[in-house]
Amino acid sequence: MPGSDPAPGARAEGAAAPYDAVPYDAVPGGAARGVTAQRVSRRFGSVQAVEYMDFHAPAGKVTALIGPNGAGKTTLLLMLASLLRPDAGTIRIDGFDPVREHAAVRRKVGWMPDTLGVWDSLSAREILTQMARFYRLPAEGRGQRVSRLLHAVRLDALADQPARALSRGQQQRLSLARALIHDPSVLLLDEPASGLDPGSRVELRNLLRQLAASGKAVVVSSHVLSELDEIADGAVFVNQGRTVKQQTLEEAAQEGRRYSVTALDGAALSARLHEFGLVFRAEGGRRPSVSLVLMDDDDAASLLKRLVESGVGVVSFAPTTGALEETYMTLDAER
Amino acid sequence: MSLVGDSPGTPTAGRRPAQAGNAVVGYFAGIRDVVVLEMKQRLRSRGWYIMLGIWFALIALVSWLTWASWNASQQFMREMPDTMMGEPSGPGSMIFEVVLAFVLLFGLLVAPALSANAVNGDRAGGTLAILQITLLTPGQILWGKFFAAWLVALAFLVTSTPFLVFGVMQGGMTPGHVLVSLLMLAVELAVVCGIGVGISALAGRPLFSIVVTYLTVAGLVVGTLIAFGLGTQLTQGTVLANNAQYPYLERQFPVPNTNGQPDHTCVGPLEEHVVYRTERVAWVLAMNPYVVVADAIPYPDRNVQGMHHHYPGMIESISQSSRYALAGPEHSYPCANGVPHPQYLGQTTPLWPLGLGLQLMLTGLLMWLGWRSLRTPAHRLARGTRIA
């Protein structure tokens, strides 16, 4: 008979942390909360999708997984979500191994895929209810849980429409609610913001911050860097299947940021910057501007003050890129 | 909208002690949940009801045509009193047989469409991985898909029940016939659904798996006949027999009833006669769904009952000729080993358990392979497929 999976529920019994009355600290491996992957490799035929990748996403933080298309982000997330077996390396989700203890891992992981898989004849409410059943959540309170999640992703008005009537962004939000149905301690979100309108992006950002604040490890993969600046506490940069860099946002900020300055009189601006002894470069663009690297916010504030005081008509003074984008672009250049 | 501290509660699995009984209940509850999901997804499409309506209308048409043609032939017979044919047993058996054959044909045509994209359709739609990421096991997903496809196929069967009952009410059949044939039809639909679900878990693309499932069904229905016919040619052998002497001037058709006694005597020395040893390839024939259904439906033993000129129905003919093949020349060739055999074989060794067993083995193999491909974390992926 197919299907006698090696004791799906039995082994995870004592370890299903968020549901039992066991506090996190009492859970075996409680010290290693969050997501850790060490030297993980995965090959598809002749394509080495992921090669000796290291990854760490601590609990209570939002960690961005950043890399160009085809860098192995989705493959890594699938391995973290216990859907794909790594060829080599170790993964721990709150201390559990997705390969050997996948039942325990699945209770802890909420996964939002980059594809919108919806059962299009079912309503949003039915989809969430059905997912709650699949996670064997108790019948009592299931309805309230579903309603609360629908409210959280602003789908309560459309809750009883068939899912095919939802727009892409709405389906995206439904997908997020689906990943949250069993109150996972680890959230793996693959491109969660794609297809969302600006308002929904802000809401997503707030929701993710809130989830991280409640102690969940949140992993967000994206290549839209500007929005990650606002969400992420740390970032892991991957390219061509390898971890290129792992840094927190403070570290990224300490490497300095490039600012772009425009003035009414470009020549006066350049002269003044020479006077201050700063290295800058002239940028093309609709308006003549200069750009220069400043180490931190204090530097930026004092430079602006000095420019204004010296009589330069500063029109704009802003960071050209986000902190993460800055790192990303330098990595890109190295490649 | 705080989600913080918004605990979904203790899952039933976490609360209860690990008991074998509960694990079984939990396993079936998971299958039921998948079935519920599938049914909601399937039954809400309007096309399904249209198909059901067309099905009903078609079978009604076939039943009516059968009944009308029987009436016409009766009229013809009444005008010719010296008919050679014996009195048929009434329109009941004929309507029943035609409707049964038709329902089986349509069932075999519909079941692959209902089952053969169950898994890879979800894979293409991105919903399979969403099931796999939950606490459902691969077996629960696969069984859930299977039962959902089967239940929908059974709905078609239920729609055709009135016509089978109509056939019975026209006389000559018993409710037992309807029950046995419905049961066997349901089992055959289950076999096809199992094949479809298994193949859909193995194949990457829905179109491919649907085509392969149809080809497999065609192989069972037509291929087994061809294979049996060709295979028989390879089974030439000999049997020791002597000569049969008939008390009649020539052999008659229909076969005169001799109350189970052989209609001939065997005389002369035993010689080697060239025969086809059909019993060696009868298992191929046994896998045919029509043979399985026809052979499982009971009919009276014509050799025992002192019947008049007997007109065997289609079901009985299929059953007897396949049993004839199973018996082989040792039991069917006239005067094999010098023993006279009755012309009408009261072959009592049924073929359908063998055929059904082989079908279930095929289905089981495909379901098992499908189950292997659903296991996660996935080790191997089909070329060019993404898991989500």
From TrEMBL, chain A:
ATP-binding found in the keyword field: yes
Keywords: ATP-binding, Nucleotide-binding, Transport
Domain of life (superkingdom): Bacteria
InterPro entries documented for this protein: AAA+_ATPase (IPR003593), ABC_transporter-like_ATP-bd (IPR003439), P-loop_NTPase (IPR027417)
This protein's record includes keyword Cell wall biogenesis/degradation: no
Signal sequence extent: none
PROSITE patterns named in the record: ABC_TRANSPORTER_2
GO-annotated molecular function: ATP binding; ATP hydrolysis activity
UniProt domain ABC transporter: residue ranges: 35-265
Pfam family, one: ABC_tran
Family to which this protein belongs: Belongs to the ABC transporter superfamily.
Official protein name in the record: ABC transporter ATP-binding protein
From TrEMBL, chain B:
GO molecular function, one term: ABC-type transporter activity
Keyword Transmembrane helix: yes
Gene Ontology cellular component list: plasma membrane
Ranges annotated as spanning the membrane: 48-70, 90-111, 147-166, 178-201, 207-230, 351-371
Origin: domain of life: Bacteria
Keywords: Membrane, Transmembrane, Transmembrane helix
PANTHER family the UniProt entry points to: ABC TRANSPORTER PERMEASE (PTHR43471), HYPOTHETICAL MEMBRANE PROTEIN, CONSERVED (PTHR43471:SF12)
Record-given protein name: ABC transporter permease
Organism listed in the record: Arthrobacter cavernae
Organism taxonomic ancestry: Bacteria, Bacillati, Actinomycetota, Actinomycetes, Micrococcales
